[in-house]
Amino acid sequence: MMNNSDMKKIFLISAAALFVGLLLGCASDEAQPVRYAAPVVEFTMPSDAVSATVGEKLTFSAKVVSGDKVSTSWYIDGVLTSSSQEFEYVFDDPGIYAVRFEARNGAGTVDHDYTVTVSDRLAIRLSVGDSTVVNRLELQYLQVAAIVEHGAGVSHEWSVDGTVLCDEAYFGTYQLAAPGSYVVHYRGANALGAFEHTFTVVANERPLEVSFSHSDEIIAILAGRTLTVTATVLFGGTGLQQKWYLDDVEMGTTGEFSHYFVSGGEYSLRYEASNSKGESVSRSWKVTATSTGRLFDDFEAETIGSWFTLGENQPGIERVANPDKTGINDSDWCLRDKVYGTGGTSGYFTLKAPKMLSEKGFDVSEYSGIRFMVHLGQNNYYPRIDFGGTKYASVTSPKFNNEWEVLEYRLPEGKTFDNTKNIVFRMLYTEAGTNISGGGESDPTNNRTVYIDNIEFFK
User: How many CB atoms lie within 10 A of CB 182?
Assistant: First the structure.
């Protein structure tokens, strides 16, 4: 009979044997290799040689029928392009491309090669799309382009109303000179074919726009004179209706306002116009009509009075036809002060107060101011009057607007002209009150010629 000690020994030996057996069994399992089933692929492409054109979408596919843990790859010219069994691809450039498929796992690799020949094609689109009618404004340039998406060596031809006008891809040199419809045709061609498209450009009339002969908001005029303001319709004149109002009283329905101002005062002048499209233009002015004091001379007579000193310059003061019968002066005749030569000068002429009193009975001592119309052209002159040794500048500076304007001169408070002293007009002064520098007839801003009219004294 075994005692307890023997039984323990037998148990320990059995357990050890079991443990060793388990260890040997595990070692046997780890040494067994993993076995994969090799890939089996069904190639579904209809041919190994594939033809396509630039921009055409191609589908590449290969079906893995069986195999464990199979990875797939598609290469185009050696570059991995897709890892799917099927993918789509578009070739942007013509040429011959090598396409390769591979399926692989631990048991092996299956591959297949294709040759893809991509041909060029002609593809053109226009910047106006497939429109048959496009709208523009009159006087705009057409500005349309042919965009070649595919194809080389394309020739271009643009025509308007049957006349070929451009052989470039961009056509932007044709101006839509007048409202109306223009038929535009494009043709682009190369060795692969041709693309053509015809569309109509409708040039719409531009919005109503009107210009005026008087740009200033305030128009100055002497009482006893006619004011003429002209409205010129630049665009949008279809179905135009025009109206002029003076102090809210309708005065005319044409493009010209003309009114004789009998007396001085301030007046409101308004222009309104609308066309058949419902567009409108309005403009308003304040007309300041200055009451005359004593209009000494407006030079309509055929001779100039002896109270003017003539020939002080050569040729000096002369009676001539009005060079600009618009705006505030529609007189037929005026004076011209012209100075020959090229040296510095003030271009002066003299009004003899004593002769005015003795021959015309006109006493200048009753007046403290004098105004006259002047037309400076483009000359940058600042006329002054010289009385009693003092040279007086005008109350407001000349406008240099190449129109007739009124310059006004005032003596100091409490002072009047003296009928024993002459009044000298110095027409060609600088702003500083000095003689102009040398110039000549061809110089537009210093041609040594000005025009004078309507010399008027006021209190």
Answer: 18
CA angle 287, 289, 291 (to 5 degrees): 170
- Per-residue pLDDT band at 1 (split at 50, 70, 90): very low
268 near 246, Cβ under 8 Å? yes
179-195 tens-digit pLDDT: 999 999 999 999 889 99
User: Tens of pLDDT along 314-363?
Assistant: 888 888 999 998 888 888 999 999 888 778 888 888 899 999 899 888 89
Torsion of CA 401, 458, 362, 413, to 10 degrees: -120
Residue-wise pLDDT tens digits, 20-50? 454 555 444 555 566 778 899 999 999 999 9
- 49-53 and 108-119 beta bridge pairing: parallel
The DSSP secondary-structure symbol of 366 reads G
Handedness of CA 302, 303, 304, 305 (dihedral sign): negative
Domain with CATH 2.60.40.10 in the chain: 40-119, 123-204, 209-290
Alpha carbon distances (Å) from 80 to 42, 121, 421, 441: 21, 27, 108, 84
The Cα–Cα gap between 399 and 298 comes to 22
For every residue of 263-286, DSSP letters joined together read S-EEEEEEEEEE-TTS-EEEEEEE
In this structure, whether the domain defined by 209-290 belongs to CATH 2.40.10.10 is answered with no
Going by C-alpha positions, the residue among 115, 134, 281 that lies closest to residue 202 is 134
